[in-house]
Amino acid sequence: MMLEQFTSTSCLGIVLAGGLSSRMGTDKAKLIRQDKDMLAFSIGQLKSTGITDVIVSGNGYDVADDYAQAGPLGGIYSALRKYQPQSVLVLPVDLPLLSTSLLTELLTKGQLSNKACCFEQHALPMYLPNNAYTELFFQKAFSNFNGKGPSARSLLKQVPSVQLPLAATQQLMNTNTPQEWQQAQQVLITRKEQRN
């Protein structure tokens, strides 16, 4: 999935798949959601918003982490350094209930405001412009890297940002454990039954 002709004027979609999945006990990117794995689902969700260029962040994928175990922001920073996009739309690989419409709303509001954008109480998914504020934050955060990356919340406090209200909080349910994954599967089954 390496990008041959990425233009820095574009918004780059990033799937964060570099976590250790230690609480899940298996690679979250490979968990099957209905008929596809979570990695394919997440890539599809980003492309459904109209973004054409999507990469996967994590060792063994499109962008290896420049800083080992630096968390989600380590993955974002590595992608920003490699591709120099104008902006990014970042999606963790563990949101099986996320709708395209919610992700599209995030992208649209972020582009219109030209600010970092997320939903209330959820730092990810995130729209992030690659501007001077962002650059300064990452330079400071990683200039003396001590083995622990900064949090997404600390980024949102230090760059111009907007938090959107979220009515359907279930859509941003993280699945970090087998129990959470089973809960999400049950929601998907219920949704399917309601449609039939």
* Percent of residues in β-strands: 15-25%
- Helix percent reads 25-40%
N to C succession of SSEs: EEEHEHEHEEHHEH
Q: What's the helix count?
A: 6
Compute the gyration radius: what is it? 16 Å
Determine the N-to-C terminus distance. 36 Å
Class by helix and strand content?
Answer: alpha/beta
CATH first level: which class? Alpha Beta
CATH homologous superfamily annotation: Spore Coat Polysaccharide Biosynthesis Protein SpsA, Chain A
Annotated CATH architecture: Alpha-Beta Complex
Report the major sheet: 6 strands, mixed
Anisotropy-based shape? globular
Total tally of structural domains: 1
Poorly predicted residue ranges: none
Mean pLDDT: 90
CATH topology: Spore Coat Polysaccharide Biosynthesis Protein SpsA, Chain A
E-strand count:
8
Cross-sheet strand order for the largest sheet: 4-1-5-7-6-8
Please give a structural write-up:
There is one protein chain. The protein has helices spanning 38-48, 71-83, 100-113, 132-143, 152-158, 178-195, and strands at residues 11-16, 32-33, 36-37, 54-57, 87-92, 116-119, 122-129, 161-164. It is of the alpha/beta class and 196 residues long. It has one domain (11-195): Spore Coat Polysaccharide Biosynthesis Protein SpsA, Chain A (Alpha-Beta Complex).
